């Protein structure tokens, strides 16, 4: 797989773990989700694995042992949470009015209850999926006409046109960007493993 220019830029901005992350059975993951996944996301996961950028953006990955960072576990959970909200009248995000459209989570904002999703439209190639940010503690959705890798890079280098991620710039103010694996963040002893907790 040829590295994308945006991935090279992200690696220079925020170095990945020294040890390669566990390999992913993409065919199995895509079969379970019922869809192929974008190439930029696969490259992100293959380079970084599940974990946290600047303690703020948590990247989900298939088969992560911590359900909070497992792509399939979060996809199932978010489907249930959002279905319940929409049943009681909360407004759906732009784009979901199209028959066959759906959303899939690929990351969340640590500590905020907010999620980053792909907007999956029928007949659209996964590499054309765009990003939707949901604030989590409210009904607002923020669409971004870009893929997940480009959006993540923009968030970290401060060029993303978003009303969110203020914590990253107002509190952390990183002079150097850092990625922490899910194992490091949650702790292999399980003391920080919040698998049973929802971000809501």
TrEMBL record:
For this protein, the record's InterPro entries field holds:
Knr4/Smi1-like_sf (IPR037883)
Name of the featured protein = SMI1/KNR4 family protein
């Amino acid at each position: 797989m040829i590295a994308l220019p945006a991935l090279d830029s992200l690696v220079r901005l925020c170095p990945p773990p020294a040890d390669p992350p566990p390999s992913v059975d993409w065919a199995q993951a895509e079969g379970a989700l019922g869809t192929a996944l974008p190439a930029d996301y696969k490259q992100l996961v293959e380079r970084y694995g599940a974990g946290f950028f600047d303690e703020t953006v948590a990247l989900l990955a298939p088969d992560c042992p911590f359900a909070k960072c497992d792509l399939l576990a979060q996809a199932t959970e978010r489907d249930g949470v959002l279905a319940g909200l929409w049943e009681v009248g909360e407004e759906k995000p732009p784009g979901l009015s199209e028959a066959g459209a759906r959303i899939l989570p690929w990351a969340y904002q640590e500590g905020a209850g907010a999620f980053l999703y792909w907007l999956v439209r029928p007949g659209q190639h996964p590499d054309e999926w765009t990003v939707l940010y949901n604030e989590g503690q409210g009904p607002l959705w923020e669409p971004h006409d870009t893929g997940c890798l480009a959006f993540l890079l923009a968030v970290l280098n401060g060029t993303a046109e978003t009303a969110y991620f203020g914590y990253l710039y107002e509190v952390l103010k990183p002079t150097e960007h850092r990625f922490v694996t899910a194992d490091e963040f949650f702790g292999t002893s399980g003391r920080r493993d919040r698998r049973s907790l929802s971000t809501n």
